[in-house]
């Protein structure tokens, strides 16, 4: 699945870990990701969190999509920061799941908290 993820590749996102209900992804904040204030654009922070969420909720095989997500920005992402997003499943009930993602700098400072809700849309695994 990651090989076909053009959005993640375009942002330079690397997937470090995927296991049942969990995923870790990272991304370096580049100058191209700066907003008008000279800090990392929140859209890229959201993208990183969403990628980790996506791989966590798809880690079991059947296709899962986001049905909703929200993010709280707690600190600015600085240019040059290496951000790490760690997604963890909170609950899985029937076809629906809830996942929390914490985005931190490599030094451990929390940049954002993301919560995503997933829904299984098919009972078959992803094609290769």
TrEMBL record:
Coiled coil (UniProt feature): none
Lyase keyword on record: no
Residues making up the signal peptide according to the UniProt record: none
UniProt superkingdom: Bacteria
Keyword Hydrolase among UniProt keywords: yes
Keywords annotated in UniProt: Hydrolase
A GO MF label: acyl-CoA hydrolase activity
InterPro entries listed in its UniProt record: Acyl-CoA_thioesterase_PaaI, HotDog_dom_sf, PaaD, PAAI_dom, Thioestr_dom
Residue ranges of domain Thioesterase in the record: 37-111
Name used for this protein in its record: Phenylacetic acid degradation protein PaaD
Gene designation per UniProt: paaI
């Amino acid at each position: 699945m990651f090989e076909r993820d053009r959005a993640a590749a375009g942002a330079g996102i690397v997937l470090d870990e995927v296991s049942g209900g969990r995923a870790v992804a990272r991304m370096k904040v580049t100058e191209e990701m700066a907003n008008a204030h000279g800090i990392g654009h929140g859209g890229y922070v959201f993208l990183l969190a969403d990628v980790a969420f996506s791989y966590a909720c798809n880690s079991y095989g059947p296709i899962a999509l986001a049905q909703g997500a929200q993010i709280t920005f707690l600190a600015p992402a600085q240019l040059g920061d290496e951000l790490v997003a760690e997604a963890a499943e909170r609950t899985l009930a029937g076809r629906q799941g809830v996942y929390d993602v914490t985005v931190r700098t490599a030094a451990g400072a929390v940049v954002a908290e993301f919560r995503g809700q997933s829904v299984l849309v098919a009972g078959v695994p992803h094609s290769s």
